[in-house]
Amino acid sequence: MNIIILITLVIILAGISIIYNTKYILTILLALELILLNLTVFNVYISFEHSNLNLAQFSIFILTLSAVEASIGISLIALLSRNFSSTSVDNLNTLKN
């Protein structure tokens, strides 16, 4: 069980480091998807380990959150590429107006 927690923690930290070290929004979205899917798999593993299927219902919520995050991210990518011909995070402040 400790190795599963360690692997989960390493993947989450890798996703966070990708988020902080990149400047393109598509890479950030992929890292967020990596983190959310990792949390989903870990939650399912813990629910089957403890024979508590109520925890597995939380995985459906995480997957729904992941789908919403992806749709908002795709709309941001469409806005950035249409207005600036680039998907850099630096251009997000200029979308306010």
How is this fold's topology laid out?
Layout: H1 2-21, H2 25-49, H3 54-84
Helix pairs in contact: 1-2, 2-3
- Low-confidence stretches are none
Q: How many DSSP E strands?
A: 0
CATH topology: Helix Hairpins
Strand content: under 5%
- The CATH architecture can be given as Orthogonal Bundle
Largest sheet: none
Count of individual helical segments: 3
What's the shape? elongated
End-to-end distance, in Å?
Answer: 50 Å
From the alpha carbons, calculate the radius of gyration and give it in angstroms. 16 Å
Order of helices and strands: HHH
Number of domains: 1
CATH domain class? Mainly Alpha
Protein name: NADH-ubiquinone oxidoreductase chain 4L
Family: Belongs to the complex I subunit 4L family.
Keywords: Membrane, Mitochondrion, NAD, Translocase, Transmembrane, Transmembrane helix
Organism: Ophiopholis japonica
Write up this protein.
It is a single chain. This protein has 97 residues and is mainly alpha-helical. It has a single domain, classed as Helix Hairpins. It has 3 helices and no strands. It has helices at residues 2-21, 25-49, 54-84. Helix 1 packs antiparallel against helix 2 (25-49) and helix 2 runs antiparallel to helix 3 (54-84). It is elongated, with a radius of gyration of 16 Å. The mean pLDDT is 88.
Short précis:
With 97 residues, the protein is mainly alpha-helical.
List its salient traits.
mainly alpha, membrane, transmembrane helix, Helix Hairpins, NADH-ubiquinone oxidoreductase chain 4L, transmembrane, 97 residues, mitochondrion
